[in-house]
Amino acid sequence: MSSTVLPFSSPWLSLNVCLCVSPAEFMPILGTNLNPEFISVCNNATWAIGEICMQMGVEMQPYVSLVLNQLVEIINRPNTPKTLLENTAITIGRLGYVCPQEVSPMLQQFIRPW
Asked: Where is the chain membrane-spanning (predicted)?
């Protein structure tokens, strides 16, 4: 099992910490938390996925399929709170930035005409 070192910093702490974690362990947990019925939990999981994918880059590729369909469902869901929509859009964009081959086939499901 490989680990990825993710830098972690907090505006409340005066130190930086590196977390050694295995994406195979935490990405399924984050995917499970993409339930818009629990807005705060879903919003946090969405935000975390976006942050993690920017740190992992192309190494995020095996995990895109775990979360992308749920993110697309959230962004297309009626009456989704604005903050969750914003984080979902940013996270989908970040996934598309680091793994365009995995995200581009889904464009028609979430892109809207100008």
From this structure: none
